[in-house]
């Protein structure tokens, strides 16, 4: 059977049309974003003049000379995403390995718990988490004194990262377990026979073989951290302070009081989208296989 | 190799000696960091925080002159965060031990923060800086709570009734009548219902769209209380410090807005976005006849929304302003002022230096800079004579409103009170409640939320 | 004997294991799984269980901004049922509940499950690369920073002449008067904005599941003369039963607890509680108010009810869909 690559018949045409119609808002939205970024004014999708001036925030703060520069904020966001991703991947992988390979009391309960934990609305826990962060702040060194991330307490990048890790863990464990389940037992069996400890097996054998899973989870976690808004906003001080991240910084442009200069906001928004776009272009397979572990519904 | 190694050692020794000397000299100087948190709409209100940079140098010079070993180093956190978020942020950061030393906020928050012990009273320290005597006496009332002073006023403003002169002309008013309007309002000859009548005429004649005869702000805010006061309402009982809700005044207040919507083609403004609909609607769009706003918005319109139409010149050409009219003929017009104040947190380790810094910015120079760029009113006696203040026509022409102005009460429970009464108002405007139902809703809500902390008259 | 083992070990490629004591105990120890799980347990305890207990306690106090730091909320003497009474006698309680029900069911049915299934079905039946591309595009919504994403929707819904929808679609068709669509039709956009993000989750899972269906079934049904629709109804869908149930469960819980997008889009408005959902109310009460009305105790009470509903639904789903059957035994634990 030689199938025409595009199978153009009535059904296919209808299918394509349906897809296009449903996806129309997405196309329009991103088109608007790009056009607006490079225009002086836009009406709908029409540009009233092309310009690069909206990108001036890259070298000049739009709110006055003493205002935080966007590069500092970008660094904060990068730190947050990286710290959070590293911790999530490690901790998820360790826990998922145990859930996938070991028999122990409470295993079933733990698995169900990861689903139920997802039912915890983050909003309900924000207040007590604030208390927890406060206690952490009082711990010497770890609380406030670390370089770069500033520590793990309130109003530090580390603290925000830690909270985000907590919310990502159920998802991360579920995903990693799916990948672990797909690895055959043989390699581990040989290694265990040879006298390796479980930890060595995990670190030296399984982890290298699970690179697609690690990649997928890392990308998702990184993007989550990069895009985060509510948690950084609640646990840091100021919209342009020492621990501000990009999403919070953008709100300066869209506040109720200042006239929204849509064009500059679009530029800053596109700026924040750049890493996501990069992942998008170069890691498509990883992205779309993220839920592959749970595809069959089996656990 | 040997030569460069000895050269290296010599350089190291020199550096060591120099740093020891520097450290020895620096031993005598104690750098005190002072953290200042301000809220400002950039760029117009930037001076709220930036004034402290100038003040820092000034204060350090003073300290040097009296051989005080301390020097201050200010850290300014300033952005346009929302007021509610700002308060939450202060409370949370205080709880984590990171409160700013100086906190700029609306005066009405003083009650709650003072009760919780997060700010300190300033009575004793203020007396050491006679410059504070320059501030208008009435403004100190705003920062007073339970007999003590808790903050230093930072700026004042008034909330006038604005009108669009070109739309009035279209309605058939003559220039003479237009120019006479502020005076008539001041004398009590042009009342609130007169204004609504005019708005109705404009709608009927097609000068404005229905709903655009008269606008207020699009969300909850101090302005509405001015109307409640206009109808005879009280908000606080000075003897007990409890909040008050007057049902008779409340009914008239809700009825006014109900009529505005139902009969006079107004109040199509609730729920609009500030920057994409409200500001353009009243300023560059020119489609509203009367609206209540703030004097500081004049600067926003001039610099941002009317930029392409001629800026401030356009504003003077097309907009007029006056007090909020009286409720009945012969009554007193009013306005509402919502001063901001610098507060000092109780976690501040050097309150005397903090107050000294604030004293430096409470002077003609710094305060006028802020007043002019943001069109807030000055707070100092004699400021109208100050050379640079005089240059703002709006500030000079609006200053008389401070004689008629009113204030929000200083109560820790103002939050729930304001929310409940506003929710009732919003329901009246959307048509969900009649004025009577609104009053009942407000009373029920106030009793539920505040219990015995409110007196219902 | 031991000598042979040594030789074996050297020959095997896994001979890099030094005979040192590893930090973790050897495989036969019952402690081992818990050691692996320990970081998770620490984090989850710190940030889930302790906060959960605290939220329950707080909901029985009237901790708010005026007594924060003063009220000893952990002392039972300060506990009252006031907050819960306030919630159930709140005039807007039915409306908020109603809003939440509408929001969750509409978004779930139309997008998170409905559209996801539709797109998955279509994209697996057309050219593979094109289908892949479309799924990627939908995934993009989920990967866009929330602030930017909402900004794009606001631009779409903007008033004429700036709004994209007004200018290019609704205007020329004569449907709309050019007003701000978020004010005239807020629910449409709330559901759309959340739905586009939610759909990508189900879409990816369904696509993988559909592509995993053995080709024999599809061929057999074609041979039997089934139409596309019949194939879908009688072959495809039953074979992806588990992913369907899983996605429904997961997304219901997600929707119940999500509010960030609604907050940024309409903030519960326009008007009084028009699009306010339960989780947003909890956030509002606890964290925001123009005049500093932050009431942590009251907000916690709203949150607690939400948690109870969420956990109850999760347990119901788990039972009804018999997830226990899904959980396989671990591969092999002992040698």
Q: Which descriptors would you attach to this protein?
A:
heterotrimer, A: 299 residues, mainly alpha, two-stranded antiparallel ribbon, 2 strands, disordered C terminus, C: 335 residues, 15 helices, 0% strand, globular, disordered N terminus
**Based on helices, strands and strand pairing, what is the structural class of chain C?**
mainly alpha
Calculate the terminal CA-CA distance of chain C, rounded to whole Å: 19 Å
Percent helix among the residues of chain C?
55-70%
Distance between the termini of chain A: 38 Å
Assembly type of the shown chains? Answer: heterotrimer
Tell me the fraction of residues in β-strands of chain A, as a range: under 5%
Determine the mean pLDDT of chain C: 78
Give the total of beta strands of chain C.
0
Could you walk me through the main structural features you see in this protein, from its secondary elements to its overall organization?
The complex is a heterotrimer of chains A (299), B (457) and C (335). Chain A is mainly α and 299 residues long. Chain A contains twelve helices and two strands. Chain A has a two-stranded antiparallel ribbon. Chain B is of the alpha/beta class. Chain B is globular, with a radius of gyration of 26 Å. Chains in contact: A-B, A-C, B-C. Chains A and C meet through helix 1, strand 1, helix 2, helix 3 and helix 4 of A and helix 2, helix 4, helix 5, helix 6 and helix 7 of C.
Outline of the structure:
The complex is a heterotrimer of chains A (299), B (457) and C (335). With 299 residues, chain A is mostly helical.
Q: How is this fold's topology laid out?
A:
The complex is a heterotrimer of chains A (299), B (457) and C (335).
Chain A: H1 10-37, E1 42-43, E2 46-47, H2 70-101, H3 107-117, H4 122-138, H5 157-181, H6 186-193, H7 198-209, H8 211-227, H9 230-235, H10 246-251, H11 262-282, H12 284-288
Chain B: H1 2-26, E1 30-39, H2 47-65, E2 70-79, H3 83-95, E3 102-106, H4 110-115, H5 123-126, H6 137-142, E4 144-145, E5 148-149, E6 151-155, E7 161-164, H7 165-171, H8 175-187, H9 192-204, E8 214-215, H10 223-230, E9 243-245, H11 247-262, H12 274-282, E10 290-292, H13 296-305, H14 311-318, E11 319-322, E12 335-337, E13 340-344, H15 351-361, H16 364-374, H17 387-390, H18 393-398, E14 405-407, H19 414-430, H20 435-450, E15 454-456
Parallel strand pairs in B: 1-2, 1-3, 8-10, 9-15, 12-14
Antiparallel strand pairs in B: 3-13, 4-5, 6-13, 7-10, 7-11
Chain C: H1 2-11, H2 32-58, H3 82-89, H4 93-125, H5 128-143, H6 146-156, H7 164-173, H8 181-184, H9 186-211, H10 215-223, H11 228-239, H12 241-257, H13 260-265, H14 278-287, H15 296-320
Helix pairs in contact in C: 3-15, 4-5, 4-9, 4-12, 5-9, 9-12, 12-15, 14-15
């Amino acid at each position: 059977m030689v199938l025409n690559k595009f199978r153009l018949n009535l059904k296919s045409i209808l299918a394509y049309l349906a897809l296009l119609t449903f996806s129309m808002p997405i196309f329009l939205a991103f088109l608007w974003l790009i056009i607006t970024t490079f225009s002086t004014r836009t009406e709908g999708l029409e540009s009233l003049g092309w310009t690069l001036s909206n990108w001036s925030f890259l070298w000049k703060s739009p709110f006055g000379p003493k205002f935080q520069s966007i590069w500092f904020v970008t660094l904060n966001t990068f730190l947050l995403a990286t710290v959070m991703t590293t911790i999530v991947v490690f901790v998820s992988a360790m826990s998922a390995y145990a859930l996938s390979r070991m028999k122990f009391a409470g295993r079933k309960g733990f698995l169900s718990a990861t689903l139920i934990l997802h039912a915890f609305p983050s909003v309900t826990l924000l207040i007590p988490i604030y208390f927890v962060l406060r206690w952490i702040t009082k711990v010497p060194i770890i609380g406030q004194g670390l370089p770069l991330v500033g520590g793990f307490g309130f109003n530090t990048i580390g603290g925000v990262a830690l909270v985000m890790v907590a919310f990502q863990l159920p998802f991360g464990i579920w995903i990693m377990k799916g990948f672990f389940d797909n690895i055959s037992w043989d390699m581990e069996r040989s290694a265990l026979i040879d006298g390796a400890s479980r930890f060595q097996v995990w670190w030296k054998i399984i982890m290298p073989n699970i690179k697609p899973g690690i990649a997928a989870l890392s990308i998702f976690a990184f993007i989550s951290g990069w895009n985060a808004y509510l948690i950084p906003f609640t646990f840091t001080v100021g919209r342009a302070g020492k621990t501000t991240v990009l999403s919070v910084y953008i709100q300066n442009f869209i506040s109720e009081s200042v006239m929204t200069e849509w064009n500059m906001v679009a530029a800053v928004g596109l700026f924040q989208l750049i890493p996501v776009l990069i992942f998008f272009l170069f890691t498509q397979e990883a992205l779309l296989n993220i839920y592959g572990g749970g595809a069959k519904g089996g656990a | 190799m040997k030569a460069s190694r000895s050269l290296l050692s010599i350089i190291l020794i020199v550096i060591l000696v120099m740093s020891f000397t520097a450290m020895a000299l620096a031993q005598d100087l104690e750098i005190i960091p002072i953290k200042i948190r301000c809220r400002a709409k950039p760029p117009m209100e930037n001076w709220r925080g930036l004034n402290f940079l100038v003040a820092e140098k000034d204060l350090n010079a003073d300290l040097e002159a009296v051989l005080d070993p301390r020097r201050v180093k200010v850290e300014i956190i300033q952005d346009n965060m929302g007021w509610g978020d700002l308060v939450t942020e202060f409370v949370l950061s205080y709880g984590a031990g990171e409160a700013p030393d100086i906190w700029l906020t609306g005066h009405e928050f003083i009650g709650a923060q003072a009760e919780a012990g997060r700010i300190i009273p300033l009575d004793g320290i203020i007396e050491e800086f006679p410059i504070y005597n320059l501030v208008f006496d009435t403004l100190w009332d705003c920062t007073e709570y339970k007999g003590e002073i808790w903050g230093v006023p930072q700026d004042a403003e008034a909330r006038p009734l604005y009108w669009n002169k070109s739309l009035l002309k279209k309605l058939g008013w003559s220039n003479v009548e237009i120019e006479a309007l502020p005076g008539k309002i001041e004398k009590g000859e042009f009342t609130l219902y007169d204004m609504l009548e005019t708005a109705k005429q404009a709608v009927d004649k097609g000068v404005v769209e229905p709903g655009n005869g008269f606008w207020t702000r699009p969300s909850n805010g101090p302005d509405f209380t001015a109307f409640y006061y206009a109808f005879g309402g009280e908000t606080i009982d000075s003897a007990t410090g409890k909040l008050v809700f007057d049902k008779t005044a409340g009914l008239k207040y809700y009825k006014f807005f109900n009529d505005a919507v139902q009969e006079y083609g107004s109040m199509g403004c609730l729920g609009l976005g500030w920057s994409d609909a409200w500001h353009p609607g009243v300023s560059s769009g020119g489609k509203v006849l009367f609206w209540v706003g703030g004097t500081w918005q004049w600067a926003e319109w001039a610099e941002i929304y009317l930029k392409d139409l001629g800026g401030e010149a356009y504003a003077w050409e097309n907009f007029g302003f006056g007090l909020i009219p009286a409720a009945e003929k012969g009554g007193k017009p009013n306005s509402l002022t919502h001063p901001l104040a610098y507060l000092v947190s109780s976690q501040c380790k050097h309150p005397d230096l903090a107050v000294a810094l604030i004293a430096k910015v409470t002077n003609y120079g710094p305060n006028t800079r802020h007043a002019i760029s943001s069109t807030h009113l000055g707070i100092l006696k004699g400021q109208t004579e100050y050379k640079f203040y005089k240059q703002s026509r709006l500030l000079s022409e609006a200053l008389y409103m401070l004689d008629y102005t009113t204030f929000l009460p200083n109560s820790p429970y103002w939050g729930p009170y304001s929310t409940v009464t506003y929710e009732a108002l919003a329901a009246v405007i959307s048509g969900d409640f009649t004025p009577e139902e609104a009053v009942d809703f407000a009373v029920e809500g106030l009793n539920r939320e505040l219990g015995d902390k409110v007196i219902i008259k | 004997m031991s000598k042979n083992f040594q030789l074996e070990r050297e020959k095997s490629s896994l001979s890099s294991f030094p005979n040192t004591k590893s930090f973790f105990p050897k495989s036969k120890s019952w402690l081992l799984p818990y050691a692996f799980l320990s970081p998770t347990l620490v984090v989850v305890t710190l940030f889930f269980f302790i906060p959960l207990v605290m939220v329950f306690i707080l909901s029985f106090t009237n901790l708010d901004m005026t007594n924060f730091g003063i009220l000893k909320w952990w002392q039972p003497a300060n506990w009252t049922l006031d907050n819960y009474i306030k919630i159930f006698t709140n005039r807007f309680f039915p409306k908020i509940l109603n809003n939440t029900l509408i929001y969750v069911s509409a978004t779930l049915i139309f997008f998170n499950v409905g559209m996801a299934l539709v797109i998955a079905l279509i994209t697996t039946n057309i050219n593979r690369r094109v289908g892949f591309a479309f799924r990627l595009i939908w995934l993009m919504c989920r990967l866009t920073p929330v602030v930017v994403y909402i900004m794009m929707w606001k631009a779409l819904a903007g008033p004429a002449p700036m709004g994209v929808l007004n200018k290019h679609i609704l205007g020329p068709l004569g449907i709309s008067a050019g007003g701000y669509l978020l004010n005239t039709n807020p629910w449409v956009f709330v559901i759309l904005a959340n739905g586009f993000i939610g759909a990508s989750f189900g879409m990816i899972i369904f696509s993988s599941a559909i592509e995993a269906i053995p080709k024999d079934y599809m061929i057999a049904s074609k041979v039997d003369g089934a139409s596309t629709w019949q194939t879908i109804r009688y072959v495809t869908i039953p074979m992806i039963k588990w992913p369907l149930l899983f996605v429904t469960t997961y997304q219901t819980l997600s929707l119940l607890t999500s509010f960030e997008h609604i907050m940024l889009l309409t903030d519960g408005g326009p008007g009084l509680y028009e699009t306010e959902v339960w989780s947003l109310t909890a956030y509002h009460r606890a964290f925001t108010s123009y005049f500093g009305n932050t009431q942590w105790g009251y907000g916690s009470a709203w949150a607690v009810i939400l948690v109870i509903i969420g956990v109850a639904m999760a347990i119901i789903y788990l039972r009804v869909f018999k997830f226990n059957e899904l959980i396989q035994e671990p591969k092999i634990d002992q040698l």
